[in-house]
Amino acid sequence: xxxxTRPPDKYGAEHDVFLASNGIRVVKFARNFGxxxxxxxxxxxxxPATPQEYLARHSLMERIFPTDIRLEGLTDDGHFVISxxxxxxxxxxEHTVREYLLSLxxxxxxxxxxxxxxxxxxxxxxxxxxxxxxxNFVASAQGIVPIDLQIxxxxxxxxxxxxxxxxxxxxxxxxxx
Length: 177
What we know:
By secondary structure, this protein is of the alpha+beta class. Helices cover 23% and strands 34% of the residues. It has 3 helices and 14 strands. A hairpin with a 5-residue loop joins β6 and β7. The longest helix is centred in the C-terminal third of the chain and has 16 residues, at 156-171. The model has no long low-confidence stretch (mean pLDDT 86).
């Protein structure tokens, strides 16, 4: 699938984004395979994704935060082209994103990576999300809609970190007044 010759309507870290001619979808031409959350030692990080991880990330995103993501094809240079429905609205402020994630029972945790918004996990659903800056959400008539998160299913290494953190919290002295 050839890349459009006109400038993108929006640039992202991974994609050149174009409004489809029908005005109902945005088409995202990947420039790389992006990133996924991971664990290195005792740090939560974002690591470069393989092509399989890129597809798995978008499949998981669609399962948890549906926006009708579709695989449209491959570019001439072997990168993916995806699309999703247009979501009309504006990017919410950071505190609104935080309130939204907390309302869904996500828990914020420290992470080491270059993108904004922090890392959040949901033990019950079994996912870790990162790159939760306001640019990756739209405040729409339907409420807050995530549009491009770095998301991964929790693996054994991450669950060990969570268990260790929970143990430390239980052992911490309680502060009373």
